[in-house]
Amino acid sequence: MKKEIIYAISFGVLLGLIVAVIIVLILRPSNKQKTLPSNTKTTLKPNQIKNNYYPLEITQPSDKQISTTKEIVIKGKVEPGSMIVIDSPYSEKIVKNSKQDFQIDFPLMLGENLISIKAYINKNQTIPQIKTLSVYYFEEE
Amino acid sequence: MRIKSLFFITIAILIFNSCVIGQDMKTDSQDIEQFKDKLASKVAELQKKDEKAFSGFVTEINGKEISFKTNDNETFIAEIDDVLTKFYSLITGVKKEIQLEDINKDTYIIVTGPINGKIITANNIYIDTHYLSDSGIINEVNSTDYSIKVSLIENESLTVDIETSTKKYSINPESFKLETIGFSKIKSGDTIHFIYEKTNSSKAEKRYSAEKIIIIPQEYFSK
Fold first, then answer.
1. Contact call for residues A85 and B192 (beta carbons, < 8 A)
2. Looking at domain B131-221, what is its CATH homologous superfamily?
3. Nearest CA distance, A141 vs chain B (angstrom)
4. What is the pLDDT of residues B63-111, one digit of tens each?
5. Angle formed at CA B116 by CA B111 and CA B122, multiple of 5 degrees
6. To probe the interface with A, which of B47, B51, B167 has the most A CB atoms within 10 Å?
7. Where do the DSSP E strands lie in A23-128?
8. For a tag site, which of A40, A91, B29, B211 has the least CB within 10 Å?
9. Which of B150, B148, B178 shows the shortest CA–CA distance to B163?
10. CATH node for B53-127
11. What is the pLDDT of residues B203-220, one digit of tens each?
12. What strand order describes the sheet that includes A92-96?
């Protein structure tokens, strides 16, 4: 084969590759184009909790525990500086906790007490850490 | 831990008793009795601490057996003893003795007593109100029918009716104290915790009447 033909073929292949790369780069959608336009009606959503925070932990009482006293002590651990919100159908308490350990007295009503304990670890995160437990209070016979 | 404690207390009683046998007969029997009583009450106290109750909606009543399903979809059977089992209602907030006939399908019950697998030998069965709680962000406040639309943490949304009987509180972002509020203080964008009564017939609904709401104003998060 003549040298000229080999050069022509090589040049043709190279030119084809360059054109193909340019086309792919032009036609590829940018990151902005990938995002679909959101609904016109905005829906508020809670911010997600980021990691590296001490998880809310309840050491006392345990779930489904029976109490014969009208008040219990809720003990646990939480990220220092959290706002703790405890509520049940019967009562509610808010505590700003500077330490990791917390201990809060909480009154009970007769029967089932659904107690929800929420910790807001800081003001940027609207989703709290939540623990829910049932404690039953029955008068001693 | 408690099982360990019980074990050690039992061992202590046995050792103590055997020591007593070997001791002089003149040992003060009153002291021994007192010590035994103390140990017995401690054991009873530890056992009571471990006692648990189970609650759920009645699915079936079959003679002396009541089947009920818990919130976690677990089914338990409460065995009724004609002499031992007692029935009470706590609906009014006061304990009132009732009969087995007062319990029907879909009644919410609490059962106490020794459990073996899924079978509870019922000492007491109580009828009670079942409450649930949830949290989310307020998306819409409708002042014509006094309802609010809430986006839950699990990305679901539901409607919460605010009744005149609903206890309404807001957290003061400065003092962290709870303040009683009116409906007009509730704003879109606020965080809400709410408690509502759950009946077995309200399974598929996404609309509940709130017993209580606690609002965390958006100002708390924007500071």
1. no
2. Copper binding periplasmic protein CusF (2.40.50.320)
3. 11
4. 999 999 998 899 999 999 999 999 999 999 899 999 999 999 999 999 9
5. 30
6. B51
7. 57-60, 65-67, 71-77, 83-87, 92-96, 101-107, 111-120
8. A40
9. B148
10. 2.40.50
11. 566 889 999 999 999 988
12. A65-67, A129-137, A111-120, A83-87, A92-96
Query: Do residues A106 and A72 make contact, with C-beta atoms less than 8 angstroms apart?
Result: yes
**Chain A interface, Cβ < 8 Å to B:** 43-46, 62, 64-66, 68, 83, 85, 87-89, 92, 94-96, 109-112, 114, 116, 118, 120, 123-124, 126-128, 130, 132, 134, 136, 138-139
- How does DSSP classify residue B31? H
How far, in Å, CA of A11 to CA of A7, rounded?
6
Say whether A126 and B221 touch across the interface (CB within 8 A): yes
B80-118 burial by CB neighbour count: b if 16+ within 10 A, else e?
beeeebebbbbeeeeeeeeeeeebeeebbbbbbbebeee
Tokens for B124?
């007491």
Tell me the count of A-B CB pairs closer than 8 A. 106
Crossing angle (nearest 10°) for helices B29-50 and B2-22: 170
Coil, strand or helix at B222: helix
Q: What is the pTM of this model?
A: 0.71
Contacts of B21 (CB under 8 A, 6+ apart): none
Same fold: B53-127 with B131-221? yes
From the list B69, B62, B64, B66, the residue with the least C-alpha distance to B77 is B66
Domain boundaries, chain B: 53-127, 131-221
